[in-house]
DNA sequence: ACGCGTGCCTTAGATTGTCTAGGTGAGAGC
DNA sequence: GCTCTCACCTAGACAATCTAAGGCACGCGT
């Protein structure tokens, strides 16, 4: 319960999809990318990341392929499917809508 | 799983505290108020609302008192404690921070 | 040649918060 | 007296995250 990240449940999928939308990446790379993009504000836990990836693969939003990294290590590269791209749009819209509502309520209340 | 509310877990407490910050209200009244403030975009489930209220009462963020409503019905009026007010500030800050991060990531990714 | 740091993946449980879906009781209006 | 609405309560299912541990293999330093 530190004042670390504390991501809102449901937003991780969206962030991962978002990062993958610029190109394929392996799990560890996704973590790094998110940390970098958020200026170290986000530290995605591996115990959250991988289950999330499996869920999304099962749902067909992303697909995986084993390859070698530049460091010559085996890694599972994930990339967005067409369905995943739609899902990203959907989640993004939902997020926008919800955060607008929350802003509305917190400002008028 | 309709395209109804689908509140992000963790935000309900903040919204309730926020509504209570303008004055005491009973559970049912909180539901109405949130629905009204969000222009019907939020329909808070009673099965989420009451557990949330109990949690917060136990944590000392709010306190309850049985009274009569204008309609002559008994209702439990909740009001913010000093601790609750601080908690609201804290959660508000967290929300602002998190949504800024998400905006940052989704725009740069 | 060996150990160790690091890159990278995996997974079992606990925890937390929400939703589903039922129920209770009592005033008000017909 | 019947039904509608107000108003509260709760058990159980479910979903997503975190905790915490373990595993394998490359490459570097010595």
What's the SSE blueprint?
The structure is a homodimer of 109-residue chains.
Chain A: H1 11-20, E1 25-26, H2 27-37, H3 46-58, E2 62-68, E3 74-80, H4 82-108
Antiparallel strand pairs in A: 1-3, 2-3
Helix pairs in contact in A: 1-4
Chain A binds a DNA duplex (30 and 30 nucleotides) through residues 7, 9-10, 12-13, 26-29, 45-48, 50-52, 54-55, 69, 71-76.
Overview of the structural elements:
The structure is a homodimer of 109-residue chains. Chain A is of the alpha+beta class and 109 residues long. Chain A is built from 4 helices and 3 strands, in the order H-E-H-H-E-E-H. Chain A has a 3-stranded antiparallel sheet. In chain A, strand 2 and strand 3 form a beta hairpin. The first copy, chain A, starts with 10 loop residues before the first helix and ends with a helix. The mean pLDDT of chain A is 90. Chains A and B meet through helix 1, helix 2 and helix 4 of A and helix 1, helix 2 and helix 4 of B. Chain A binds a DNA duplex (30 and 30 nucleotides) through helix 2, helix 3 and strand 3.
């Amino acid at each position: 319960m530190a004042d670390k990240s504390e991501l809102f449940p449901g937003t991780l999928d969206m962030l991962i999809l978002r990062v993958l939308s610029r190109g394929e990446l392996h799990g560890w790379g996704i973590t790094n990318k998110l940390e970098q993009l958020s200026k170290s504000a986000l530290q995605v836990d591996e115990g959250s990341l991988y289950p999330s990836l499996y869920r999304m693969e099962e749902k067909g939003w992303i697909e995986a392929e084993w390859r070698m990294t530049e460091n010559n290590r085996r890694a599972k590269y994930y990339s967005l499917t067409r369905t995943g791209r739609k899902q990203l749009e959907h989640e993004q819209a939902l997020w926008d809508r919800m955060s607008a509502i929350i802003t509305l309520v917190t400002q008028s209340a």
